[in-house]
Backbone:
């Protein structure tokens, strides 16, 4: 190349360098150094993590790469934390019964830890094992926030089985076995398969809310039907078929004839066209007026 050509090329390079300084606000050499550092780090991490190339699978299968991959992975994650991608805040929605300590223990989060060292799916699986949690969603919100939304189970009834009480939800799943005192107002269902059928029964009872308030327990009989125990001690035998229709009939009988105020032991609704009444062997004692209890 002639001296004249070399001079022209040198001037063009100088002009390009001045343009780079104006766009970045820093000398061109500094900009290039930063780009090379990030590019090398990304390319190196990708190469280690993917393990692609001829013979890559042979090396992996002979346990020569896993340790290097793990080291490179955590080195890269540490670099992202230094760049500001670390856990600073945790936001939780949907929590009512689940304690804060139980959630934090399940999430296994530490303030200041690398954001990309946190596994949202593993955390979700741990959170969903908590007694009150029906479902959970865990997300990273860069640069430093973890979002957790939980759907909690709704208590439906107390299940009595072999003398023990359990709090169950709408699907029949047991939530708690202890500390049930605050749920004493819930209806009690009895029987091995009672939890599976409790929701359908309570939906039936809700059709007559005034009558439902008198129900204290429901016993599942032979896995086919229910016998209800009312607050005044009367047993109501519902049929296997169309228990909802029988419940409406009983409410109508009560409105017209006040059958629940009589000396009755059992009300049998298992036949579709009649109510069979079994009188109590002994008259029930009259209710004491309020303020006269001793």
Residues:
């Amino acid at each position: 190349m002639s001296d004249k050509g070399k001079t022209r090329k040198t001037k063009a390079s100088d002009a390009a360098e001045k343009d780079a300084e104006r766009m970045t606000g820093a000398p061109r050499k500094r900009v290039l150094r930063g780009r090379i550092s990030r590019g090398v780090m990304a390319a190196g991490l990708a190469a280690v993590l993917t393990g692609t190339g001829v013979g890559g699978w042979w090396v992996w299968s002979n346990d020569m790469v896993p340790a290097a991959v793990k080291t490179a992975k955590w080195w890269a994650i540490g670099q992202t934390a230094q760049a500001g991608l670390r856990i600073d805040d945790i936001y939780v929605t949907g929590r009512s019964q689940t304690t804060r300590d139980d959630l934090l223990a399940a999430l296994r989060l530490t303030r200041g830890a690398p954001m990309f060292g946190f596994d949202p799916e593993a955390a979700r699986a741990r959170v969903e094992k908590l007694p009150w949690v029906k479902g959970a969603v865990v997300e990273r919100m860069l640069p430093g926030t973890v979002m957790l939304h939980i759907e909690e189970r709704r208590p439906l009834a107390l299940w009595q089985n072999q003398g023990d009480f359990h709090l169950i939800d709408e699907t029949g799943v047991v939530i708690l076995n202890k500390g049930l005192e605050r749920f004493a107002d819930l209806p009690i269902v009895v029987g091995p398969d009672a939890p599976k059928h409790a929701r359908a029964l309570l939906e039936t009872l809700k059709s007559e809310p005034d009558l439902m308030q008198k129900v204290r327990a429901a016993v599942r009989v032979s896995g086919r039907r229910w016998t209800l125990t009312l607050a005044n001690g009367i047993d109501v035998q519902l049929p296997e078929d169309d228990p909802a229709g029988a419940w409406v009939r009983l409410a109508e009988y009560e409105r017209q004839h006040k059958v629940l105020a009589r000396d009755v032991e059992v009300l049998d609704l298992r036949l579709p066209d009649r109510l069979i009444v079994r009188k109590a062997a002994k008259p029930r004692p009259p209710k004491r007026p309020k303020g006269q209890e001793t």
Observations:
- The CA atoms of residues 159 and 189 lie 5 Å apart.
- The two ends are 119 Å apart (CA to CA).
